Amino acid sequence: MAEDTLAPPRDHAARPDRRESRPWWRAEASRLAEVAALVGLVVTQPLLDVLGRSPDFFLFHRASRVDVLLLVALIALAPTALFALLGAVALLGALTLPAGRLTRAAVHTAIVGLLLAALAVQVGRHATPLRGVPLLVVAGVAGAAGAAAHRRWRAPRRVLRVAAAGPLVFVGLFLFASPASAVVLPRGEGGAAGVAGAGAHPPVVMIVLDELPLVSLLGPDGRIDAERYPNFAALAGGSTWYRNATGVSGWTPYALPAMLTGRYPERGAAPHYSQYPDNLFTALGGLYRIKAEESITRLCPPSRCEQATTPEQGLGVLVRESGKLMGRIAAPVDSRVDPEDSYRERTAAEAGLDAAEPVPADPKFRWDTLDDNQPARFTSFLAGLRPDPRPTLHFLHLLMPHSPWAYLPSGAHYAAPEDLPNDGPGWVDLARARHLAQLGYTDRLIGETLRTLRATGLYDKALVVVTADHGVSFRRDWQGRGMDAIDHAANEVAWVPMFVKEPGQRAGRVDDRNWEHVDLLPTIADETHMKVPWRMDGRSAKAAPRERADKRFYDRPGQPVTVTGGVPAPLSPVPVDPLVGTRVGDVPAGGSAMVANRDAFDAVDPAGGGLPALVWGTVPDDVPDGTRLAVAVNGTVGAVVPVVPPDVGGRRFAALLADDRLFAAGANRLDLYRVGDDGTLRRLTLS
């Protein structure tokens, strides 16, 4: 009999549930704690972990401390509040309906199962090769099993209630231990001021471009391609071109602080004045007026300069971009979207800025909208290029020609899918073509700068510096700027353009010394006769060249990688298909294709500064990979591209129509032709 008393009841359904014997408010508190714990694991921890390692996200959007704290509060509380609201509706039924308690328990179990399945998706994506539907199925099974275990046994419930403290821990780590904490809770600004020495203190005009390999500017003769990039060529013709110049990292939050402090990256820190108190802005700030347009850094402290407000700011954009990030984190497939592509320069029109300068008389530019399409940060910079009785530093870090690529050389912009691949057969060639087109527009911005400097009389007086923080590889299978790209295409990632025009300099010259970007601040200090009061790793161009020939590159701070090689040779030009530029008459029809943005050709508005210059879509499965397609606008072929295996969006081709002369105002005719092996064309029926 004693054994029967100690044995558990065989009829589990008849066993009294102690949870239901508690006061309803205690049961609800326990359920809320369990939901909070799971939300913390599914939403709060992964989102704050990524954001905490991305202070540049907050710096780019000029987020205030209040904005960041409100965002963190929303991430930590809003999802739990939504589930709590659902539970409250179920609770109302539990208190009023006969079977309400069973319904309330079922709703809570379903919520637990859903959150466990979402957690299983994230864990499975990192720990298994499963993706897509198979991962969703496995995650669904795991969620159902977890929900059943949660309902049947007390131990999982107890663990979740203890874990309810997790969101507070995750918030604390973000605020006090993550790299982003420097943005939210800066610990002073410090910074040593440079000491003015004997000699002139000329104005300094410094432009740092982004993701620009030197090889993209080179023509077949190894010089700047004056036909494609006349303004870069003009700059080289009147300055010293340090042709053997390299950046120190492929990531801007490491590369730019190294350039402005003269020190190699030694630790992973936010590109913020509290982490790098000694930099160009503090070195010159005691004497110089600072006009700085930074993008994803905040190295100029508030005591030296006020940051411009050209990027989209406020809690709204933080919430929107965080929501996109959460979607990528929770998705059962790997994201093909580069997070840094969210760093898109707003145009002057989007930011509501007045044009800095009237459009020059340039017959190649037909839209009269260059100023509208200018990046807003550039417009503000250009407007500030005026003589000043006080020595002035005019600084601009512009995310050009950095992706996302959206400009033709003329300045017209175009739309493109966010997840268009940048690597693989066909796609990497398209990526390079889009990069070069945007570089053509960047050349136009350099021309606007030189014209403004000459018009204001600053050109002869100023020290003008134009460079880029790093390059990018478009080599197939090694696209990007990480260590794989460095190992296989260092000539595209590390070597960058570096031009220094001294005050009064008119003749160009080439210097092939081993320049590394930590040499930038020492060189500026010498040119401006300022003494920098801290130790620097770089060497001024006024000093003897460094003896070693190899380079230091940092994929990770404190872990230098040696890169060898000298001035890179020009890349082999991409051959232009002989069909490009030809007129197409009547040809027989044969086959079909789907063009995703076909409707954009029905009402083209060149005066608005935009064109449907990127065409993408798919063809039937029986069309072999490698088949050539000719894309024509108004009867003229603008591009010839291969058919490729479908990407994640099902696209099998995409073509850039970089010549804006193909388009006319109003309705435009788009045609696609299948090119046979013998060069014959067959027109495809478009849908």
UniProtKB/TrEMBL annotation:
Keyword check for DNA-binding, yes or no.
no
Fetch the InterPro entries from UniProt.
Alkaline_phosphatase_core_sf (IPR017850), GAG_Ulvan_Degrading_Sulfatases (IPR052701), Sulfatase_N (IPR000917)
Q: Which SUPFAM superfamilies match?
A: Alkaline phosphatase-like
Write out the transmembrane intervals.
68-93, 105-124, 130-147, 159-177
**Annotated stretches, region: Disordered:** 1-20
Output compositional bias ranges, type Basic and acidic residues: 9-20
According to UniProt, the name of this protein is Arylsulfatase A
| Origin species | Micromonospora tulbaghiae
